[in-house]
């Protein structure tokens, strides 16, 4: 499982540390972030920080985002693939939307839990562990859902239709 957040970990979000630390032992958590803070207080294994990655990776990802070529981090996609992760938890809705492309590029789709819903997240993870035969169908259905409903072109066409209806 990957937990995605821009910074691991500001003093104001200590609940995230508890969420990661107290997941069931059978779940291996990886943190993927752009940079770290307060590691002396919130250390967990498997922290992957873009700031500590190769310089070319850091400047490439930051440059593409600054130029608005893409919103996601290629670093996140690489970590998902490297660790063969099937669950990506983006801790806030806006981060989740930005991470969708990275997750899609890595070939991961699946269950969504609401922000700060630890019980819902654990419930999904346990269900996945107990039902490995359902993963392939879920992956295909999730990919189809994202491609048909959340593709930028589809969203643009829907928005253009709304503007057309109101005369803009």
Q: Which properties best describe this structure?
A:
single chain, alpha/beta, 2 domains, 4-stranded parallel beta sheet, two-stranded parallel ribbon, 6 strands, globular
Please give the share of residues in helix: 40-55%
SS content category:
alpha/beta
Shape: globular
Sheet having the most strands: 4 strands, parallel
The portion of residues forming beta strands comes to 5-15%
What does the model show?
This protein is α/β, with parallel strands linked by helices. The protein has 2 domains: 129 residues; 35 residues. The strands form 2 sheets. The protein has a 4-stranded parallel beta sheet with strand order 5-3-1-6. It has a two-stranded parallel sheet with strand order 2-4. Helix 3 packs across helix 4. The longest helix is centred in the C-terminal third of the chain and has 15 residues. It starts with a strand and ends with a helix.
Quick structural overview:
This protein is an alpha/beta fold and 168 residues long. The chain is 51% helix and 10% strand.
Topology of helices and strands:
Blueprint: E1 2-4, E2 7-8, H1 14-21, E3 30-33, E4 35-36, E5 47-49, H2 55-66, H3 74-82, E6 88-90, H4 93-106, H5 118-130, H6 135-149, H7 152-165
Parallel strand pairs: 1-3, 1-6, 2-4, 3-5
Helix pairs in contact: 3-4
């Amino acid at each position: 499982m990957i937990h995605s957040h821009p910074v691991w970990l500001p003093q104001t979000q200590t609940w995230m540390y508890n969420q990661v630390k107290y997941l069931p032992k059978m779940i291996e958590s990886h943190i993927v972030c752009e940079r770290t803070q307060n590691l002396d207080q919130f250390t967990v294994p498997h922290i992957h920080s873009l700031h500590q990655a190769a310089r070319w990776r850091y400047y490439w990802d930051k440059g593409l985002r600054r130029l608005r070529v893409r919103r996601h981090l290629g670093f996140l996609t690489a970590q998902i693939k490297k660790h063969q992760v099937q669950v990506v938890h983006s801790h806030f809705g806006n981060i989740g939307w930005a991470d969708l492309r990275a997750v899609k590029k890595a070939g991961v789709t699946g269950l969504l839990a609401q922000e700060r819903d630890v019980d819902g997240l654990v419930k999904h993870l346990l269900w996945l562990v107990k039902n490995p035969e359902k993963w392939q169908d879920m992956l295909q259905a999730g990919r189809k859902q994202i491609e048909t409903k959340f593709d930028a072109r589809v969203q643009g066409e829907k928005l253009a239709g709304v503007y057309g209806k109101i005369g803009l």
